Every structure is written in C-alpha cells, then in structure tokens.
Amino acid sequence: MKTVYEAKGTCSQFIEIETDDGVIKNVRFAGGCPGNLLAIGELVKNMTVDDAIKRLDGIKCGDKRTSCGDQLAQALKTV
Length: 79
Hints:
Layout: E1 2-6, E2 12-20, E3 23-31, H1 34-44, H2 49-56, H3 68-76
Antiparallel strand pairs: 1-2, 2-3
Helix pairs in contact: 2-3
C-alpha cells in the first residue's frame, strides 16, 4: 500500500511510504536534509510499522516540536 503524508512543522514537505502487510518497504521524503532523510528511509526499510513508530514518535529537531522522524511516525500511524 502506498501512502502520501503532508509533513507539518519540518523542512520536508511530504513523505511517501510503501508498506506491505505491516512492514515498511520504502520511504521517500520530499524536501529536508537529503542525506539524513535517505538514511532514515534505509534504516526503517523492512521494519514493522509498529517498531518504527515506537522508535521515532516524539523525536524533536532542535527547538521545533517535531522532526522528520517524528513526522514519519505520525504518517505511519495513518497506515
């Protein structure tokens, strides 16, 4: 299943997520810090949605209330 999520409060504008039976197959961020976001996508590949949410939910970026990782967790909650 493919999901597109509009990121809020981060440099990335949206996140495309592909999942299959509760497992993350691919993540692509549009905007933001390319190297870090490619790394996040690679790290969560083949991870369960629930595990990724547990690891990323609530992470902040500097003084922001959220981060690209946290936004990925919020997006995964909608899958």
